[in-house]
Amino acid sequence: MSGYLRYAASLLTAWVAEAAAQGAASPPTELEKVEIVGSHIPRIEGETAAPVTVIRRQDIEASGVTRVSELLLALPYVNSGSSFDDRATLRAPSLGAAGISLRGLGIGATLILLNGRRIVPYGLAEGNDESFVDLNSLPLAAVDRIEILRDGASAIYGADALAGVINIVLRRDFTGAETALQWSRSTRGDAGEWSGSLTLGHGDLRHDGYNVFATVDLMRRDALQASDRDFSRTSDQRPRGGQDYRSAAGSPPTALLSDGTYRPGPGCAPDRITPAPDGGTICAYNNNERTQLLPKAERGGVLVVGTSQLSDETTAFVELAFNRTRTAGDFAPTGVFGYPMLAGAATNPFGEDVLLFWRIVEMDPRRFESTIDFTRAVAGLRGRAGLWDWEVAGGYNSVDTDYRRLNDLPTDATFAALDAGLIDPFGTSNAAALNKLRVETRDLIRGTLSFVQGKGTTVLTNTTHGPIAMAIGGELRRETFRTRLDPLTIAGNLTGSPAGVDADASGARSVEAFFAELSVPLARDLEAQLAGRVDQYSDFGHAFSPKLALRWKVQPGLLLRGSAGRGFLPPSLFQLNRPTSSFTDLTGDPVRCPVTHLDADCRNTVIEHFNGGNPALTAERSTQYNAGLVLEPVDGVSISVDAWRIDHRDKIVFAGGYLIANEALYPDRVIRAPASAADIALGIPGPIIELRDTYINLARQQVRGVDVELKARSNASRYGSVTLGAAASYVDWFAIQVTPDGPFEQVAGDDGNPRLKANASMLWEFGRWHADLAAHYVSSYQYFNGSEATPRTMASMTTFDVAVGVNIQSAQVTLLVRNVFDRQPPFRDFVWGYDPLVHDPRGRIVSLSARYAF
């Protein structure tokens, strides 16, 4: 442990001891061990100082979902616009993965735990190079419950917990055998899915001294074609009031002439000739014709958990998990984009030099495939020594991604074949030549996490108002990632894929942490939680995260709670170590333009723009507040209201033009050519030739809102019992400040950020039968489409689910209909006609499930 951590540990321990000494001395008493996410100290009562939502196993089974991501994306507290699953990653290396963003702060600002321990981040970062945990790699069939802490928790768990924590708790033991099967399909006869699981367990921990169980979980989902839905059948959205998103790369090709206008090639069907934005007409191609909205997906996993009672006070445990997710999605056939065809070429029908844009429809669609292997092994001991409950554990976790692109072409070889006349863009017999050029690329991505951690909890003393409890602990952790990219990927030498990066990437770091937590009764029914954690990182430095929370049971049926704390988000390994990539850009020069007034200085300064990682980055920081109440007006009814606010500072971004506008602050990032004699005479520097736009801690975002939850259950009667539930989250303010001196831009209710999400349910149970009605609401949002001055509105959407089930001895059968009224996603002016980050394209889904225990 570093000297800083030893010093911090001594301070925190002294603080704990001093607080404990203030309590009245009395014999310590034991607390019932019920540990809930948000605290390391066991709790007797369910409602804590921080708002926690718990999704239990029976709720998961009733939902009809087969993946953890699908369950969490429906929660009101999850921001759809900054979360994702395989509906929105068809052409990305994260194909098949899923990430969750609480409060919309980004997928890196939500901490995901498995049994209270960290999970290895996905090997390659997403979006703004944020690290995230792939939720699709986690075994839903073995989940006992999911706890969602809707409050910052860096003081408890360390990094990433700015917006909250999601703790996925697996079964600890199981005896017997249980199998489950589920089948579902849309009422249009597509998007079929089936899943199955088998759990076997043996041994009773109390009587036999051991328990071991294993769960095998399988899932398969069919692809959904864009052409199978009315809203996405064509990328020409003009009939619905949108724009034409068909590609200019058609078949026959479209040519860009020397005068800057476009012209379709001979033989283009009249209904495909459409005006080009920059003048002329194009031969448009409907990308959606051979593109999938949902890729095909397969998943198989196994979990083995063993527990052994070594003595009356000590238990050993081990968890072994492996999951493989395979995803394959099709996108429109590749094309040739910007091929320079000379006027003298034998196949050139335009009579002048042109740039050609050609869709090679003779080829199969581009296929993107990913195989994600998730491996995890954890072993540890837990027990009691004197007045202390303790636990130590160590583990290793890895995620390996094999990402492939099929049916693509190397740009250089394709252009050479065109030059040689081996391929005729206006002919129809290119199959043999194209097959010789066809390539498959393979990118390998790996992330690992290894850790050793330990903690202890005890009751220090009792006071007249209750016990003073304490938890202390520490953690050592190492994280790594590396990529082994295909040479064609690195070179960007593929006709149908984005430009590449300059090199493979890799990175590693070590983390040391120490934490302490106190639960102190300040008065009768008034409890304070004080927590502090120090994290020392080998790459960026250290962070200290404190938190204070209060819980006051004012009277029976009324509880008030509140908290304040600080959090941090370290730069991801990819943000620190991303390889440099470059492109040519046009910009203005704020120093030269006011003097020369030349177009080359005011608008069209040609520069080399470099993007890349920055090893000098520091952590992003946050301050969060939470205040709420829990009201129980009558037995069986609970209403909670929680207001929250998060200030997220020093967010890591590419600064772009801000660097040029503030050149004096960043002289090493804005590179100029030497001043000429004329420049010297005018008193101006030479022109900008290079912008080194590596990552920088610069941006800020603030978000605040209110959560409301309702739970109610009637007493059993001859008519059965009814359970009601409702949850809603409203975002009042979500503002982003791109630069320190810039204005805050309000984005709540704007592009991809609906203000309100809500769910409600009613469950009726009568003997062996049960019926469930659920409603899901997502509010509208506004968005700007291109250069339009007036924002458009994507409408709100409400869907209903109905389920009926029966228990027959050891079996349970349930029929579930999701989206009963077959609501289609509201129109969004986009190539697919809807927002894939917010809505589901499948429509009505019928699901039949059966579960049998023996």
Fold and architecture overview:
With 854 residues, this protein is mainly beta. The chain has twelve helices and 42 strands. The strands form seven sheets. The protein has a 22-stranded antiparallel beta barrel. It is globular, with a radius of gyration of 30 Å.
What structural class do you assign from the helix and strand content?
A: mainly beta
Distance, first to last CA:
50 Å
Total beta-strand segments: 42
Helical percentage: under 10%
List the helices and strands and how they pair.
Blueprint: H1 3-21, E1 52-56, H2 57-63, H3 68-73, E2 110-114, E3 117-118, E4 143-149, H4 154-157, E5 164-170, E6 176-186, E7 193-202, E8 210-221, E9 224-225, E10 254-256, E11 262-264, E12 273-275, E13 281-283, E14 292-294, E15 296-309, E16 314-331, E17 335-341, E18 354-359, E19 366-385, E20 388-408, H5 411-419, H6 431-437, E21 439-463, E22 466-484, H7 487-491, E23 506-523, E24 526-537, E25 541-555, E26 558-569, H8 573-577, E27 581-587, H9 593-596, H10 599-602, E28 605-612, E29 620-631, E30 637-653, H11 657-661, E31 670-672, H12 677-682, E32 688-694, E33 696-713, E34 721-737, E35 745-746, E36 756-766, E37 769-778, E38 781-783, E39 792-794, E40 797-808, E41 811-818, E42 845-853
Which terms summarize this structure?
854 residues; mainly beta; 42 strands; single chain; five-stranded mixed β-sheet; 9% helix; 22-stranded antiparallel barrel
